Amino acid sequence: MVICKYTLRRHLEKTFADRELTQWFDPLTIVVDENNGIIRVYFPHAFFGQWFMKARKDDFERQVASHIHSMRILYEKDYAVAYRTTKTSSGREYSSSRIAYPADIQDSPSFPVAPPRRHSPNSQNNLSAENPYLLLDRHTFDTFISNKKNDFSLAAAREAVEKVFSPAYTPLLIYGHSGSGKTHLLGAMANALRHQNPQVSFFYGGTNYLQHILNPSSYYVDEHTVFIDDIQKIYHNQTLQDSLITLIDIFHSLQRLLVLCSDIHPANHPKVAPKLLSRLSGGLIIELKKPDIDIRMQYLQQKNTGLSLGLKQKHMLYLAQNYQDIRSINGALAKISVYHSLHHNKNNMELSFERSLEEPLPHHVLSLDDILEIVSKQFSVSTECLTGKTRDKSVSLARPVAMLFCRELLGLSLVQIGKIFSGRDHSSILYSLNKIKIFQKNDKDTHTKINALKQMCLTRRE
Fold first, then answer.
1. Main-chain phi, psi angles of 42, to 5 degrees
2. Domain span holding position 427
3. What is the pTM of this model?
4. What is d(CA 262, CA 245) in angstroms, rounded to the nearest whole number?
5. Residues contacting residue 156 through CB under 8 Å, at least 6 positions apart
6. If residue 38 lies in a helix (H) or strand (E), which one and from where to where?
7. Would you say residue 122 lies in a domain?
8. What's the pLDDT tens digit per position in 157-202?
């Protein structure tokens, strides 16, 4: 019998589905030495070898032995997986592994050995030299501002770090608009892991990890946990998508934590391969909602106190109403702070605020009375009718719009809005808000009119 990869695959097809073989058998390079009765197996890259030796080696050898009795499968010492066990502070054991390639498949005849990229509690030497990202100490769970809108995301992130040795899901994908706080939450997870389990090696950074660690020239894999930001950057690159698929398969098999961040849900990106979408969907995908005015105000108050900016309540409310995400708020604060310092307006924050933003500060910020007056005038109804209990057709659109502005521009809670509108309960307010949002989505003219009204509210002058 002539033995080759094809004959082995035909035999394996009796036991394994073609989809499975495509995943773990087809990537193998198999060299048959019939004279010495040896089958040699080579892996496409280090990560694949680690996963194979952990998840498929026994099945593979069992099936080959049942088909070919006179040959042995050899894994050369240079590229066999060497598992070493480490005890955590709780006494629990976990394995850290590495794979090296034999010299004859390297670019150079010799195979150098590099020191492991271990994490030190007092440094950031877990970051590779090519990695431009820095893990900032200020990114913690305590400084991450959230409300009911993002409570679930924060809870899921905390739980993932607490159960790092037996994650309930991998990968964990956090997605949301730019400026929603994804990088902060990712950094908070890495910092929590660093302080709670300093013996655990991890990587924190960008998609360069996929290019570096899954490249055939990589020496080994040593990270127990990996945090990767901005994976939307690889969605246009099929090779890197394949690398991420392999990474997910390995971490899932080894029960290791893999956390990813993206600006967009992968299902909404046209270039994401079905295979990658399937792997990502097999973990936990959570959305980090865009910060509402409540979170923006909390953030401004935190920065104002921490940096001693001296902003008044009306300044912060103005910024929270006019800047929709954390990054744009930071940009405005930096501009105000620098202008205030350079022009020495120590006793005139009002002047610094106004001139640094290159627009006059209104004598008062938007109020509830402003909203009710503007909406009433535009829809030709009285404010009493607007806030009353009447169900006339004339207020069927005006009232939900006023409720929407109270929620989005003033940051009022559902209960507070209910009190303004004749004591309605929070479920009625929520129903009205959802209704007007759907109406905006389906009716372009209504969407345009509401946006124009919103801008009118924000630019109101006495």
1. -120, 150
2. 368-458
3. 0.57
4. 15
5. 172, 284, 286
6. strand 38-42
7. no
8. 999 999 988 888 889 999 998 888 899 999 999 999 988 888 888 8
